[in-house]
Amino acid sequence: MREQELLRRIAAHVGAEYAGVWRRDVALPDLDHRTVDEALASGVPAQQVWRAVWSFLELPDRER
C-alpha cells in the first residue's frame, strides 16, 4: 500500500476535515502508542499503519 492510499482510507473513515488532526493526535496502541504521522516518519510501512488504524477503528473485515 502506498502512503497516499493510506491517507485516502483514513479520510474516508474519519472524515476529510478531521483526518489531518486525527493522524497527528491519535496515538495507536498497535503502533507503540505513536500517531500515524509519527509512525510513517519513523519508517513504518503504510500497510502496517493501516492495520493499526483498521484495528483501532474496529472496521469490518472487508476494509482490511
Q: Strand count, sense and closure of the main sheet?
A: none
Name the beta content range. under 5%
Shape: globular
Question: Helix and strand succession?
Answer: HHHH
Integer tally of domains: 1
Fraction of residues in H or I helices: 55-70%
End-to-end CA span: 11 Å
Stretches where pLDDT is under 50 for at least 5 consecutive residues are none
Rg, Cα atoms, Å = 10 Å
Give the number of helices. Answer: 4
Mean pLDDT: 97
Q: Give me the secondary-structure category.
A: mainly alpha
What is the strand tally? 0
Properties at a glance:
globular, 4 helices, mainly alpha, 64 residues, single chain
What does this 3D model show about the protein?
This is DUF3046 domain-containing protein. It holds the Pfam family DUF3046. By secondary structure, this protein is mainly α. The chain has one domain. The chain contains 4 helices and no strands. It has helices at residues 3-14, 16-25, 36-41, 46-57. Helix 1 packs across helix 2 and helix 1 (3-14) packs parallel to helix 4 (46-57). It is globular, with a radius of gyration of 10 Å.
Task: Give the helix/strand layout.
Blueprint: H1 3-14, H2 16-25, H3 36-41, H4 46-57
Summarize the structure.
The chain is 62% helix and 0% strand.
